[in-house]
Write a structure and sequence with these properties.
single chain; alpha+beta; Beta-galactosidase, Chain A, domain 5; Jelly Rolls; nine-stranded antiparallel beta sheet; eight-stranded antiparallel beta sheet; 19 helices; about 20% helix
Amino acid sequence: MMHASIGTTCGFLLAMSSGARGQSDWSLVAPRSNTLPKGEPPASFDRRENIISPLGVSSSLDARPALLHTNKFYANLLLDSSSRAAWALPYILTINEEYPFGLYVSYPRFFEGERQDDRLKWYATTTGKDIILSAQELRTNQEAELTDFDDEGFSATVKFSSQDTAGGSMTTYIVRGMAYATVLYEDFTPEMATQHAILRVNGNAAAGGVHTNSRGRFMLELNDGSTWIVYSSNRELELSYVPATSDTPSSLRAKSPMTGTLRATRVPYESDSAEYDEAMGALDEHAGCYPIKGELQAWMDTKSTNRGRYKISWTTGGDDSGLLHFALPHHQGMLETSKVARTGLYVSSPTKGNMELVIGKIWEVNENDLPDFEWVPSKSRITSNVEREWIEYYLEEEISVPLDNVAGSSVYFGGKNLMAYAQLCLVADEIGRDDLVGPCVDQVEAGFDMYLMHSNGNPLVYDKIWGGVIGGLGLEEDSRAADFYASYYNDHHFHYSYVINAAAVLAHLRPSWATSDNVAWVNTLIRDVNDPNKYDAFFPQFRSFDWFSGHSWARGLLFAFDGKDQESTSEDVNFFYAMTMWAIATGNTALEGLGRLQTGVVKRSINEYFLLKDSNTNHPADFVKNKVTGIFFESKVDYTTWFGANVEYIHGIQNIPVTPITEYVRDPQFVSEEWNQRLQSVVGGAEGSWNTVLYMSYATIEKHLAFKEMITSGVDDGLQRAWALYWAATRPDCATFCAHSDANLDRAPEPTPTLLPAVPTPTPTPVMPVPTATAGAFTCDGVERNNFCCSSGCRQCGGSNCSKQEQIGLTGEDCCQNRITASGRLCSVTQEAPCYMDAPSSSAWVAPASSAYGGIPAVIPGMVQAEKFDHGGEGVSYSDTTPGNSGGVFRPNEDVDISGGHDDYHVAWIRATEFLRYTVNVEKAASAFDFTFQVATIPSYHDSGSFRVVTGGTGCDDYTTDLSGLVVVPSTGGWGTFASLPVRTDWKKVLTSQRWGANMLTTSGGQDPANSCATQSPSSKLAARGATTSQPTLAGS
């Protein structure tokens, strides 16, 4: 087979042809400067500076730091990390921070991980120093700076220089899909090295002296069996072999400086393969044309909302031999062949299957099967009157419950609750229950107001360093992990998709809500994640979405050896669905077109790389048996989740939230294979509410059977049962994989008349007495401070009144301790009031005492639920080192971090020095108790989680009796994987180290009844037999 060629040149961009249809039929959706606002974000977003600053950036880019990308393949280059790597694909390029300096080029090698049954649970690809492109001027030191990048995230340019030389440099263009690693030398002396031994150069022994080639072509045979070719634009280059020493690798050194390029590529085939000669010919022919960056353009068909296309134009340098480049599997069958020639030559990518060499610098991809968008599936699909009765029964029940749990310290969990309630409003509207629509929308609007007014526990702010919207809580020293490291730009498309979806529903069902201010606020979230404007001075273009990979990346500025990663493809899709519905509701046709196109692109890539049908060839066959990928890195794929390895977690996270777009992405064939091979055997024992998520998928092929199961299966705050049932009842027929067998359903009970929830009225902030105030500012130890309100982050102030901890730097008690207002509102992160150390002479101040949760002490022996700690507030019934409730559920207005939902709550994110206090009724005298603790942690925190149960005292370092001894929490495999930890000991629960979770503790009397409990002082915190005032404490040091 001859390798293909195409008549392209390397020095200019070819004009785009629109084919048979006229150019006027297409509307540009990216880049576009008027789709969204381009000025400063609304003033309601406070301006803050991130605690992370970009490193290694040229001073020439300082004028536009807000345009640096956080989630692209090269972001490690901007971080203070041990491995500054960029995943160009298939090659991985690394800038080394120690000798030998220069650019490391690695072709990844596959290796298997753990197996279970006949399935491969994970696999990864190694990186190494296959080829090191360097210069003799860099032998003692180097300065490597990012000097340029394209706005869409296709490329990054890095320049190397030395402190020891006044001039000269080497520059590398790191470009997605590059077929060669390219270094441009400017008066620098080339040097090449490798971690392997160089055996031969152009067929001659490497140690045989000076190597030259009239074509500037050097074939290197290495002792790992690989062959690399290095092409020099300087045909007179002479390379001398230098053998390895104990601390330096073998190398090839030029005799003198040069100006020109070196390009290195690995030969993709063995010499005895049929494709070898063709591959060598292609590599030789196109070695003179190199990519520098890429530029994106995207269009929607103005006459059909189901057709769109995008184009990547590669800017090139060098000669006119034509650009040879690698395309991913989701590109290969879609590239417009009039612009690009396919060669049929392949190499393996790290985790995305085989990449194909193609020739041409204009990549045009047509997407001709874009989805229709709808608010809810049509009620006409419901074929059972009994199913409709059940939907209405739960719709009335769930709308009668006030919407809460949206104002905690987690935008993610709060947004999920908000969107889930908004879906109820859509169902009510679709089935004609106008009596429910208004009250439902009232609740959503009131919940959304907490975000608009930035009165939730983690108010969104504008980050001036990186140019983005982040939760302010993550900027606090002790709260950097808040909301899954969202301040590091993790998961923004996940989190904001729920909030944008709820906003779209509001704008749809209550158009008057979509005021200019509200629209601007929501558009700011879209600008943060998916700004199509490459000229926006305040946000980068397409932060999360990778147009080369065809999907988003969830990891932001957290370093990872395996590169960027993404876990939940369904939440990725939800962002584009939410953005598109928002655009429809607000009449933004350009944004709507962009959303439609991106949904089509992401659907294609998800079905290539993440949702694995039996026919999938992009992963090892034994890994395909898992049916979904789990955590997908650039260099590793791991069948697990960040929160546990349960099968229901791994598959469920790929199916939340369920929206009308879900059926477009997850087709019946995949659902059938996934159910039969992985889910059917685990759904009955699935934890918590995950079984409902699995049944929602099953409804695609058996809607009536799934519906029957979901009447009683578990749900959590991020999913309403009425929506789950409505989804199941509206599944369409399909010819091959759907059965939709009949199920015998009992009639739904008659709904109990209930009052619909009243819209909560914001409570005015109480006015506190101000003992010392000057010109609107408080003083702290004689130093004037801003008049901040008190939050749980305002601690250790040490003065008579205080502002933020970081502005004071003093030590002392919590400035909010033991203080509530006359109206009973605690001074907390969501209900704020000025802070005082000493109670002023006013009857408005009272000090709360610790009291049993709900007024009913837990009975000992018996079970104590971890989340049902005493009432009393910070410093009294608990001590928590991070402000707000990170999970945002169960007790959202207190600072203890609680996760879970619907009777399956647990205390999470536990850190050192924290404690929880419980009032219990000890009904049996014993000198010893048998404890069983339900605990969870992940392997990386193994041996770091520990606690004690104690009585008496006020906290971790002040207690009377240690009843349990030090209890070490073993790794349980995931945050949501709880294990029973039995301890037989004497009796306060003290958390001595951090990052674990507690669900419950169970006690039973020991075998040796004694008077030790009875003889302790009745004031002890867990002492007097039968005393309802006794209080054990769960705490940490």
